[in-house]
Specification:
Low-confidence stretches: none
Number of strands: 8
Helix content: 10-25%
Shape: globular
CATH architecture: 3-Layer(aba) Sandwich
Strand content: 15-25%
CATH topology: Dihydrofolate Reductase, subunit A
Strand order of the largest sheet: 4-3-2-5-1-6-8-7
Radius of gyration: 18 Å
Number of helices: 4
Largest sheet: 8 strands, mixed
CATH superfamily: Dihydrofolate Reductase, subunit A
CATH class: Alpha Beta
Mean pLDDT: 91
């Protein structure tokens, strides 16, 4: 069955942001080291996006394949994103003009479960944390692929939604506890830039 892959960036304090470390003076530009998308573009044919992510991606990625200053990776991802089906979950987006895009205004779970039964490759959940949190809350994520930056940024959009429980006294969260989901580690890889790539599969 087709899987839903959640592909996201995050910081040590669980914020879904992309810290800017700046380039060293005189350093030559290098192709980005990408253990998340590069090995999987051939096995993904559908992108699952919320409204904000879709608008941002549609305004940026289609042009990158013809942009002389773009990296080889950006050109490759641009062609991949153009060809993939883009499923946009939104009740307010009026149109989706990027080729191979369609808007879904109904129930997320129903649509994802319907797509999973169709022939095809895996689906990638991209973009912002709000959609990721919605998918996680409904237990729709089959695999987590996260690149963790070695920084505490102190504020921003949380990658995972956690309810405040100031009276919680237990240090151990038992199996079957409400909200608990367990994953099996498939791969962990430190990258040259100091980030850590983590790949998990959902234990069901």
């Amino acid at each position: 069955m087709r899987r839903v892959l959640m592909i996201m960036f995050g910081t040590l304090d669980g914020i879904a942001e992309f810290p800017d470390y700046g380039a060293e003076p005189g350093a030559a530009a290098e192709e980005p080291e990408d253990p998340m998308w590069n090995p999987r573009m051939d096995s993904i044919d559908t992108l699952l996006l919320g409204r904000q992510a879709y608008v941002a991606w549609a305004g940026f990625w289609p042009a990158q394949k013809n942009e002389p200053s773009s990296s080889k990776w950006a050109k490759k991802f641009s062609r991949f994103a153009d060809g993939a089906e883009k499923v946009v979950f939104s009740k307010t987006l009026k149109s989706a003009d990027w080729p191979n895009s369609r808007i879904v205004r109904g129930d997320i779970r129903e649509e994802v479960e319907r797509i999973k039964k169709l022939p095809g490759k895996d689906m990638a959940l991209g973009g912002g944390p709000r959609m990721a949190q919605s998918f996680l809350a409904q237990d729709l994520v089959d695999e987590l692929l996260i690149e963790v930056f070695p920084s505490l940024v102190g504020s921003g959009k949380p990658l995972f939604k956690v309810k405040s429980d100031p009276d919680h006294a237990a240090d151990v969260v038992p199996l079957g506890a409400p909200g608990r989901q367990d994953f099996k580690l498939l791969e962990s890889k430190p990258l040259k830039d100091g980030t850590l790539f983590l790949h998990y599969r959902r234990n069901r």
